[in-house]
Structures are given as structure tokens and as C-alpha cells.
């Protein structure tokens, strides 16, 4: 069975899907939907919204199949579409609010992103913080890209990431409360 990132096999599937073969589209969906849904869920924190974004991505893929180059992997494009859709939802829902300036208190210890997802820390972040931090740290978006996409400055993105990571470090460094009297 080919891997989801096998570009030769994927290129054939894209060509067949362009020609209207539903089985090819279904196979592309099967290979990539789970990863796209996982990204959308991480960014939005909402399973229903993540499902909507996943569906939007694949509908856009159908619209743009004719423009895909055969040697270009599909998953990075789908992930970009999902991230943009999550940002659009944030903006449309008017959740994008200015985050007050706070002093950054750099913590010590390990990188909080290494443990954040397993501890559920990302779910405690606001939608803007979660999206900016995840896209920067895990998906490789640059601060200029994030600033432009959110209609803000590069320094806005840097500030969000810095303050959020500082807060995560602080939270992860706190001892767990014990049930002992």
C-alpha cells in the first residue's frame, strides 16, 4: 500500500480525480482527511468546526485540481487551506481581539510545546494564541506570514508567541496540586 506522501501514486490519483473519477477523490480524502481534521481541531479546539474545515478543504481541492502540478505533494497545500480556514473562522466569529500587553517572564525547564498537547495545555489557550503558536512552532509559518494573514504586524505575531510560550512554561513549571490534607 502506498504511503500518503508517495507523490508518484498521488499524482496519478490527482489526474484521475481531475477526470472525475470519484474513487480517486475518495482515496485522496482517505489518505489526507485525518491529518487535516487533526490540524483543524488543534487550531480551533472544536470538533464540529474542525469537521467543517476538513470538508471545506476537500471542496476547495476539487475546485483547484486542475491547477495542481503533478510533482507537488497535496498534503502541505491542504494543511495551508485548513490553517487559512481556521484563521478566517476566528476573524469571522469576531474572536480576534487585541491581547493586552503583559510582561514576559521567561521560564526555565523544557520547551513547553514538547509536552503541551499531551497535557492538554493548548486547549486552555484562547483561539488566537493557540492558532498563532501552533502554526508558528509546529507548521513552520513565519512571523511575517502570520502577521499578514491576521492583518497584523510581524511584531504582533512574535509577541503572541513569546507571551504564550512564557505562560505555558510558567504553567508547566507549577507543581501539581495534591489531594493529601
Automatic annotation (TrEMBL):
Ranges for domain RNA polymerase sigma-70 region = 28-95
In Pfam terms, one family for this protein is Sigma70_r4_2
Reading the lineage from the top rank, the first entry is: Bacteria
Keyword terms of this UniProt record = Sigma factor, Transcription, Transcription regulation
Q: RNA polymerase sigma factor 70 region 4 type domain location, by residue?
A: 122-168
Matching entries from InterPro entries are given as: RNA_pol_sigma-70-like (IPR039425), RNA_pol_sigma-70_dom (IPR014284), RNA_pol_sigma70_r2 (IPR007627), RNA_pol_sigma70_r4_t2 (IPR013249), RNA_pol_sigma_r2 (IPR013325), RNA_pol_sigma_r3/r4-like (IPR013324), WH-like_DNA-bd_sf (IPR036388)
Family classification? Belongs to the sigma-70 factor family. ECF subfamily.
Please report the name of this protein according to its UniProt entry.
RNA polymerase sigma factor
Name the species this protein comes from: Luteimonas notoginsengisoli
Amino acid at each position: 500500500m502506498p504511503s500518503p506522501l508517495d507523490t508518484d501514486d498521488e499524482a496519478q490519483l490527482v489526474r484521475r480525480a481531475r477526470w472525475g473519477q470519484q474513487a480517486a477523490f475518495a482515496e485522496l480524502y482517505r489518505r489526507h482527511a485525518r491529518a487535516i481534521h487533526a490540524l483543524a481541531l488543534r487550531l480551533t479546539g472544536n470538533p464540529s468546526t474542525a469537521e467543517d474545515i476538513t470538508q471545506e478543504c476537500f471542496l476547495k481541492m476539487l475546485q483547484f485540481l486542475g491547477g495542481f502540478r503533478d510533482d507537488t505533494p497535496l498534503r502541505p497545500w491542504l494543511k495551508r487551506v485548513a490553517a487559512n480556514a481556521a484563521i478566517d473562522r476566528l476573524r469571522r466569529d469576531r474572536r480576534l481581539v487585541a491581547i493586552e500587553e503583559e510582561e514576559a517572564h521567561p521560564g526555565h525547564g523544557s520547551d513547553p510545546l514538547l509536552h503541551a498537547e499531551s497535557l492538554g495545555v493548548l486547549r486552555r489557550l484562547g483561539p488566537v494564541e493557540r492558532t498563532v503558536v501552533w502554526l508558528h512552532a509546529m507548521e513552520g509559518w513565519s512571523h511575517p506570514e502570520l502577521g499578514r494573514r491576521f492583518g497584523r504586524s510581524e511584531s504582533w505575531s512574535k509577541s503572541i508567541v513569546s507571551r504564550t510560550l512564557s505562560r505555558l512554561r510558567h504553567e508547566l513549571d507549577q507543581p501539581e496540586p495534591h489531594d493529601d490534607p
